[in-house]
Amino acid sequence: MSRKILLLPGDGIGPEIVAEAVKVIEALKTRHGLDVETEEAPIGGAGYDAAGHPLPEATLAKAREADAVLLGAVGGPQYDKLPRELRPERGLLGIRKSMGLFANLRPALLYPELAEASTLKREVVEGLDIMIVRELTGGIYFGEPRGIREREDGQREGFNTLVYSESEIERIARVAFDTAMKRGKRLCSVDKANVLEVSELWREVVERVGLDYPEVELSHMYVDNAAMQLVRAPKQFDVMVTTNMFGDILSDAASMLTGSIGMLPSASLNADGQGMYEPIHGSAPDIAGRGVANPLATILSVSMLLRHSLGEAALADRVDAAVGQVLKQGLRTADLAAAGAPAVSTREMGDAVVAAL
Amino acid sequence: MSRKILLLPGDGIGPEIVAEAVKVIEALKTRHGLDVETEEAPIGGAGYDAAGHPLPEATLAKAREADAVLLGAVGGPQYDKLPRELRPERGLLGIRKSMGLFANLRPALLYPELAEASTLKREVVEGLDIMIVRELTGGIYFGEPRGIREREDGQREGFNTLVYSESEIERIARVAFDTAMKRGKRLCSVDKANVLEVSELWREVVERVGLDYPEVELSHMYVDNAAMQLVRAPKQFDVMVTTNMFGDILSDAASMLTGSIGMLPSASLNADGQGMYEPIHGSAPDIAGRGVANPLATILSVSMLLRHSLGEAALADRVDAAVGQVLKQGLRTADLAAAGAPAVSTREMGDAVVAAL
Ligand SMILES: CC(C)[C@H](C(=O)O)[C@@H](O)C(=O)O
Ligand SMILES: CC(C)[C@H](C(=O)O)[C@@H](O)C(=O)O
Q: Which sites bind Mg(2+) (chains A, B) (predicted)?
């Protein structure tokens, strides 16, 4: 039985970039024996437009049945005035939580051909290859109680809860150690144990899990120092593991070190090996519909999907190689092109990858 | 009556760098009519060694009476095994909270003479001058309830509370807007309003305070994007205002953009105009006692102290100019010296600033 990929194009440039990723999937089907079926469903603003909710029930039902989900991006200014629970981000947070996608893998990889795009000096970032493992279904993103309440003195106060249980920490730590075993065998756990009790427990549990991975060199770093070290000497890191909120901040900083966030995919996995794959960049409403967006992060998300959810490592390697080849050929979308240099369109870039497969 | 400055040298390189700052204060007294008295007290590990607590009662009492406090740094490996409530950081957090030092001003300023020290390309950071206004006595650092508890299923969980009241947000917002009025009149408030209710209230209150400052251009940015923008195009920022935790992370990232955290001072102010001043770098136990630490961040903290707590703007300008002059003369401590270039000692640097006053 062929496996199912659910496509969630979403908003902004989402549909354009997912369309190019679909071309790659189709080429793998017709030319390289990949046996998958694809289906499409709305999410985010598109979900609200189609069904009055950023995560329509039908979309979630299809996602649960799929072997893997490929997401474009969500969000756009036309949805900014909606009540909180109907805004596009709610669709994203909702599908992560409902599918139990607790492990978010975010590579920050510098492509040698694109080293000049970084705002950092070449020697500081050349060869950069960090994998950030971010906890994605817990922490302050989902902790209860939360809200805005009136106090006795008549003033309002906002409150949120940061909470992690031992088992939540343990399972993300295992993913991180497993990831480190497949890479450079160095893991840096990032916390704020000098201030937060949650971090104290985090550190203790990560240490304990580490006993099962004697080959992995484990270190701990405070989050403020980690933010500094990413700027100062980012190549010191191999795998980093951290909470939902710290991971949100650090992975965005890390990806920007590469200078080309249009190139970076991500994977969000659950305990059953199901995964959702998406570029780390946003929906870029300012350039949506103009055919200039970079589809490579989405195409590389297909590669992660093949590797992590479908066990098709050889095909994943093929996609990675094709992307490397188009870069070597000098093809650049507008976000990557040097000032004044010619840029290819979203479609031309997608076609070039297909040709290189 | 002469005003009082309490000196808290603390741990590691703290005593060495504070000694140089004291030379500057003495020179201002004898040669430029500054009328202050200084006294010294232990804090951090030194507080624990002297009185069994990182914030001895006598130290706090003296701090409350002083017009301003000058802190070196706290922390060292010999205190790492102490119980949480006796560790050096507790002294720092304790004095911030007890004195109500809610407004932490952290400049990230690039000295033109030191532009090469940055890991970022010169054109990205040349002229960088950001002021981060960090809330310092609230948020998740101090929120209750907090702790590690056992759940019904026998598992433990760690929990912390992020909480801000309207008045807490309002007073830090006022400091930020006032700061912006004295600078480029642009304020960026950083939050995570797409996820956290606290941030929703934060944004609302900052907007409201902004009505009193029609000349200040106010913008809002999500914290993950702010971390990216600091790497991508840091010069877009003038003043940033944010919570305790986000400020901890972003101010460290911002300071590292300059490449010379040995140069950056900070001020922590309360509602009565009292302030504590300290370099943003740590106690650097690895180089403590060797006379190689850079005293300039502490000397520049004296300048902030003169300006913010003593109303001595002219003397503050004099200190700033003296620091600028020694840099122009080419004097560099080891942290700033180019590889292989000669470096001056902590004392030589202090003496040079005194001579340049
Ligand atoms: C859109 C937002 C809710 C989301 C997050 O904070 O997780 C995004 O920033 C991300 O990192 O995927
Ligand atoms: C030492 C630590 C508790 C402190 C903080 O987190 O506030 C430090 O990182 C700082 O920024 O002054």
A: 224, 248, 252
Question: What integer is the mean pLDDT of A327-351?
Answer: 93
Rounded average pLDDT over B132-142: 98
pTM of the model: 0.96
Output the DSSP codes for A259-325. Answer: S-GGG-EEEEE-TTS-EEEEESS---GGGTTTT-S--HHHHHHHHHHHHHTS--HHHHHHHHHHHHH
Is B319 within a domain? yes
Domain containing B168 — which CATH number? 3.40.718.10
Same domain? A139 vs A253 = yes
Protein residues whose CB sits closer than 6 Å to any atom of ligand 2: A 194-195, 224; B 89, 92-93, 248
A162 and A216 together in one domain: yes
Count structural domains, chain A.
Answer: 2
Q: At what angle do helices A223-232 and B244-257 cross, to 10 degrees?
A: 20
Q: Which residue has the tokens 């029930």?
A: A57
Surface of B (148-187) touching A: CB under 8 A = 148, 151, 155-167
Confidence band of A29 (pLDDT split at 50, 70, 90): very high
Active site residue B153: no
Q: Are residues B295 and B349 in the same domain?
A: yes
The number of helices, as runs of H, and strands, as runs of E, in chain A is 12, 12
Domain end (from B257, B285, B319):
B257
**Spatial distance between the Cα atoms of B28 and B22, rounded to a whole number of angstroms:** 10
Find the domain containing B79 and state its range: 1-107+266-357
Arithmetic mean of pLDDT over chain A: 96
pLDDT digits (tens, 9 = 90+) for B16-48: 999 999 999 999 999 999 999 999 999 999 999
Q: Are residues B30 and B47 in the same domain?
A: yes
Q: Which two tokens stand for residue B84?
A: 């949480």
B224, B272, B317, B328: the catalytic one is: B224
If you take atom 6 of ligand 2, which residue's CA is the nearest one? Answer: B248
Q: Is A66 in the pocket of ligand 1 (CB under 6 A)?
A: no
Share of chain A above pLDDT 90, in %: 95
User: How many angstroms separate the alpha carbon of residue A166 from the centre of ligand 2?
Assistant: 26
Mutate which of A87, A242, A248 for ligand 1? The one with the most ligand atoms within 8 Å of its CB, which is A248
Give the model's pLDDT for residue A341. Answer: 84
In this complex, how many residue pairs, one in chain A and one in chain B, have their CB atoms less than 8 Å apart?
Answer: 172
Q: Cα(B54) to centroid of ligand 2, in Å?
A: 15
Which atom number of ligand 2 is nearest to the Cα of residue B251? 11
Q: Considering only residues 50 to 69 of chain B, which have any Cβ-Cβ distance to chain A shorter than 8 Å?
A: none
- Taking only Cα atoms into account, the Rg of chain B, rounded to an integer number of angstroms, comes to 20
Q: Do A285 and A344 share a domain, yes or no?
A: yes
Look at residue A292 in the predicted model and tell me its pLDDT.
96
Answer whether B314 contacts ligand 1 (Cβ < 6 A): no
